[in-house]
Design brief:
Elements (H helix, E strand, L loop, with lengths): L2 E5 L3 H13 L3 E5 L2 H10 L4 E5 L7 H8 L7 E5 L4 H9 L4 E4 L4 H17 L9 E3 L4 E5 L4 E4 L2 E2 L4 H12 L7 H8 L10 H16 L6 E4 L3 E4 L5
Parallel strand pairs: 1-2, 1-3, 3-4, 4-5
Antiparallel strand pairs: 6-7, 7-8, 8-9, 10-11
Helix pairs in contact: 1-5, 2-3, 4-8, 6-7, 6-8
Keywords: Cytoplasm, DNA-binding, Phosphoprotein, Transcription, Transcription regulation, Two-component regulatory system
Main location: cytoplasm
InterPro entries: CheY-like_superfamily, OmpR/PhoB-type_DNA-bd, Sig_transdc_resp-reg_C-effctor, Sig_transdc_resp-reg_receiver, WalR-like, WH-like_DNA-bd_sf
Length: about 230
């Protein structure tokens, strides 16, 4: 039975979410402070976190940043902020969905189900050979450990970055749209946040440049998306 942690300081909202989620068959744990929620998450893994942005001890954005240091658990933000920039920031720091108040608790429950379904279905694309080489780039994918090495150096990747890079490496030369990459990473496609992929690609490129500043294996196809392009001999 999936376990959901609710981080919300407004009792009326939290209680309605607890009621609906438990009616849908989920186990729930409710915290009002981010510090206590983070302590709980460090000791007791959960399947998904529903997190308010406006919290008494720190913002939800800061709590999510701290959470991402030790966990890739799916996160859904709840907030009264409807500004597009806030939504994009939330997704860029590692959220999976963003719901603006006021909202229907049953809609939140439906979104929780959708996120859990996507994250469980996300699988590394099949590749014939786990090692992809070229004259200037070499990647090795360990599907069991969900790790990727670049020129024999282990990349420190988030879950999103791993899924994105593994998807690109699986089919060299193929251009993937932002929507396709969002799907590969298990992020909501219909939320209109396809530009958050740009931020993840930027971070990926920065990590690759730390190993080889001269190479650029991830190419941008303007108006279409991104692809992995091995260097020609």
């Amino acid at each position: 039975m999936p376990h959901i942690l609710i981080l919300e300081d407004e009792p009326s909202i939290a209680e309605s979410l607890v009621f609906v989620l438990q009616a849908e068959g989920f186990n729930t744990h409710w915290e009002t402070l981010a510090s206590k929620a983070l302590a709980h998450l460090s000791e007791q893994p959960v399947d998904l976190v529903i997190m308010d942005v406006g919290l008494p001890d720190m913002t939800g954005f800061e709590a999510c940043k701290q959470l991402r240091k030790f966990s890739e658990v799916p996160v859904m933000f709840l907030t009264a902020r409807g500004d597009e920039l806030d939504r994009v920031v939330g997704l860029e720091i590692g959220a999976d969905d963003y719901v603006v108040k006021p909202f229907s608790p049953r809609e939140v429950a439906a979104r929780v189900k959708a996120i859990l379904k996507r994250t469980r279905q996300v699988q590394t694309p099949a590749v014939v050979d786990s090692t992809i080489t070229s004259d200037r780039a070499e990647f090795a994918i360990d599907h069991d450990r969900k790790t990727i090495t670049y020129q024999q150096q282990l990349l420190q990747l988030t879950r999103y970055e791993y899924c994105l890079l593994a998807t690109l490496l699986a089919q060299p030369g193929r251009v993937f749209s932002r929507e396709q990459l969002l799907t590969a990473a298990g992020v909501t496609v219909d939320a209109g946040y396809d530009r958050s992929i740009d931020s993840h690609i930027k971070t990926l490129r920065a990590k690759l440049r730390q190993i080889n500043p001269a190479a650029e294996p991830i190419k941008t196809q303007r108006g279409f998306g991104y692809c992995y392009q091995p260097e020609s001999h």
